[in-house]
Amino acid sequence: MKRLLFAIAVILYCNTKEDAAAQSKRGYGIINLQFKNVAGTQDLQLDSGVYTNAAGEQFTVTELQYFISNIILTAANNKQYIIPQNSSYFLINASDSVSQICTLHVPAEEYKSISFMIGVDSLRNTMNIDKRTGVLDPTSSDMYWQWNSGYICLKMEGISSAAPADPLGLHKYRYHIGGFGGYKSSALNNTKTVTLNLSKSINVSANKNSNLPLLADVLKLFSGSADISIAKYPAVIFNPYSAVIANNYSRMFQLADAESK
Question: What is residue 74's predicted lDDT score, i.e. its pLDDT?
Fold first, then answer.
């Protein structure tokens, strides 16, 4: 009996060592999330592109920014890999091509889906300022409300003849959508979690790069849970209607085909 137990222990020990060695050998690879901003079937062209929303209104886009955070990858075996918090915040800016590539270091594995938050979670919103660096530095961009102490999830501005003229005679629309649920009492929460399934799983290999293109369609910001009219809502900042726009932008992302190198 003792010999049998010893033999079983040896087998389990060897298998454990082999599993650990296999995991170590497997190592980590890189997934580059490549965000491409579009308007339907067209590439988004800041300032010059003219597009038509669901209400039949023409508009241009002069600014588009949004936070991506809390990224989770799900493997083919249903195990999840959560990107470490301090490496899981990105600010995508349509005027900055470098910002549109988010590099993730992940275990070598076959992945079938990805989820992420649009915006910045309440925990990080309320952390001490020394815990909010890089793109989360409130002074590093115009994506933070000093007056309301919180990050803007998504900002889009542009020109549309449907918008009323401002004092300078410009027909501007502005959508600055923020809100994370509030500090001590319930408030607007316009952060949204998106889960996207790959049509074909992506196989990440150790020390190799894989690219995962994602399309962000600004036309979908104007349609979804409701069609949004610029004439009726030319400026939405921190008010209840911002939740309607947030529900729409939760559907503006889709995956393109992944590729490995």
Answer: 98
Which pLDDT band, with edges at 50, 70 and 90, does 167 fall under?
very high
pLDDT in tens, 203-212: 999 988 999 9
Look at the chain and report how many structural domains it folds into.
1
Angstrom distance (rounded) from CA 231 to CA 19: 61
The answer to whether residue 50 sits within a structural domain is: yes
Global pTM reads 0.87
For residue 18, pLDDT beyond 90? no
Average pLDDT of span 179-201: 88
Element containing residue 19 per DSSP (H, E): helix 2-26
Contact yes or no for 70/121 (Cβ under 8 A): yes
Domain assignment of residue 9, yes or no = no
Domain assignment present for residue 8? The answer is: no
Other Cβ atoms less than 10 A from the Cβ of 111: the count is 23
Q: Which domain holds residue 211?
A: 27-260
DSSP string for residues in 155-208 = EEEEE-TTSPP-TTS--EEEEEEE-BS-SSS---B--EEEEEEEEEEEE--TT-
